[in-house]
Amino acid sequence: MAAVKKKKVLTYKGKPLLKCGNRIYYGNLEDKCILALDILESKDNKDIKSSTKIKVQVMDNTGEFGKGMVYRKGERENLYKALDIGEWWLQDAIQMIG
């Protein structure tokens, strides 16, 4: 019998990242809040496309996925900085909401 292959999920600091078009969702889907990162601008560097403007939003995750109320938002100039501040905001929101 053939072995079942598990899909590898990209993670950051132990939480999954899910890309849907120009939006990246970060966080556990069971939590009350999730982080949404919208890629607003990007530029091509040879064979690599890099993001130059990212909108960061901590959203309510109790209703329809990706359509919740925005608790906190901001913009950063690259994906690392957006994930770094967004992860901190997400942890803070999860602790406050409980």
Can you characterise this structure?
The protein has 98 residues and is α+β, with helices and mostly antiparallel strands. It has one domain. It has one helix and six strands. The chain has a six-stranded antiparallel beta sheet, with helices on one face. The N and C termini lie far apart (45 Å). The model has no long low-confidence stretch (mean pLDDT 87).
SSE layout and pairing:
Blueprint (H helix, E strand, L loop, with lengths): L10 E2 L2 E6 L2 E4 L6 E13 L2 E13 L9 E7 L2 H19 L1
Antiparallel strand pairs: 1-2, 2-3, 3-4, 4-5, 5-6
Supply the key terms.
46% strand, six-stranded antiparallel sheet, 98 residues
What is shown here, in short?
The chain has 98 residues and is α+β, with helices and mostly antiparallel strands. The protein contains one helix and six strands, in the order ββββββα.
